[in-house]
C-alpha cells in the first residue's frame, strides 16, 4: 500500500465518532452487525461499494467523505495519473476480501452518481449478497466476474456490462485467479 492510499475504514470510524454515533447506531440503520462494521473500521475487511453506500446513508453524508473528498465544483476531471486509490485490505488471517477503489469524480459537488474504477481480487470466501437503495451499472474492463442477483447468477467478461436495481440482493466477485477491473457507477437514491 502506498502512502497516498486512503484508509477508508479509519475515515468511517472518524466520521462516525464525530457524529457521536455508536457501532450499534450504525448497525440499527444499516442492518449490518456491529462486528462487520468494526471489521471495516479496523481494516480487517474491505467492504463492497454497496456497503459503503449504506454506511454513508446511515451517517447522512455523501460517500465521497469516506474517500476524503469534498465536492466543490460543478464538474470534475480526473487524469489517469491523478486517481487516488483506497487501501487494499485483507484480514489478519491472510484471507483476501478483494476490493480496491479509485473514485472517478472526487470534486463534483452534490453527486447523484458515484463512478469508481474497482479492482476485484480473487477471494478465498464470498460474502453474502447485500442490497441498498439505488441502481448500479458495471462495465468489465479486464478479467471475468461473477454477478449474483438474488437467485440469478451470470459470468461477465471484458467488454460485458450489466445494469440493475440495487434493491435486489447482489454480489459481484472476481471469478479467476487474477484480478478483474470494472467501471462501477452507482446511483444512490
Structure notes:
The chain has a five-stranded antiparallel beta sheet, with no helix packed on it. A three-stranded antiparallel beta sheet has the order 5-4-7, with no helix packed on it. The model is unreliable at 89-96 (pLDDT under 50). With 189 residues, the chain is an alpha+beta fold. It has helices at 8-18, 23-30, 34-41, 49-58, and strands spanning 99-103, 113-120, 135-142, 144-149, 152-157, 161-165, 170-174, 180-187. The protein is built from four helices and eight strands; from the N terminus they run ααααββββββββ. Strand 4 and strand 5 form a beta hairpin. The protein has one domain (8-187): Jelly Rolls (Sandwich).
How would you describe this structure in keywords?
single chain, 189 residues, alpha+beta, Jelly Rolls, five-stranded antiparallel β-sheet, 8 strands, globular
Short description:
With 189 residues, this protein is an alpha+beta fold. The protein is built from 4 helices and 8 strands.
Number of domains: 1
Using the coordinates above, name the CATH class: Mainly Beta
- Ends apart, CA distance between termini: 33 Å
Beta-strand residue percentage: 25-35%
Please give the largest β-sheet. 5 strands, antiparallel
- For the largest beta sheet, what order do the strands appear in spatially? 1-2-8-3-6
User: If you consult CATH, what is the topology?
Assistant: Jelly Rolls
Tell me the number of helical segments per DSSP (H or I, 4 or more residues long). 4
Mean pLDDT: 84
Amino acid at each position: 500500500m502506498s502512502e497516498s492510499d486512503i484508509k477508508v475504514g479509519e475515515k468511517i470510524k472518524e466520521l462516525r465518532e464525530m457524529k457521536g454515533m455508536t457501532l450499534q447506531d450504525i448497525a440499527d440503520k444499516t442492518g449490518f452487525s456491529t462486528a462487520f462494521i468494526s471489521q471495516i473500521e479496523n481494516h480487517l475487511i474491505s467492504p463492497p461499494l454497496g456497503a459503503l453506500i449504506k454506511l454513508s446513508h446511515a451517517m447522512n453524508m455523501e460517500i465521497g467523505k469516506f474517500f476524503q473528498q469534498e465536492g466543490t465544483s460543478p464538474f470534475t476531471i480526473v487524469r489517469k495519473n491523478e486517481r487516488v486509490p483506497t487501501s487494499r485490505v485483507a484480514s489478519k488471517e491472510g484471507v483476501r476480501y478483494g476490493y480496491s477503489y479509485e473514485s472517478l469524480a472526487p470534486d463534483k459537488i452534490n453527486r447523484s452518481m458515484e463512478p469508481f474504477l474497482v479492482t476485484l481480487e480473487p477471494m478465498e470466501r464470498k460474502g453474502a449478497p447485500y442490497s441498498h437503495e439505488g441502481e448500479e451499472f458495471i462495465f468489465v474492463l479486464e478479467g471475468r466476474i461473477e454477478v449474483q442477483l438474488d437467485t440469478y447468477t451470470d459470468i461477465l467478461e471484458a467488454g460485458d456490462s450489466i445494469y440493475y436495481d440495487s434493491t435486489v440482493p447482489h454480489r459481484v466477485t472476481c471469478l479467476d485467479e487474477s484480478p478483474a477491473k470494472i467501471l462501477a457507477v452507482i446511483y444512490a437514491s
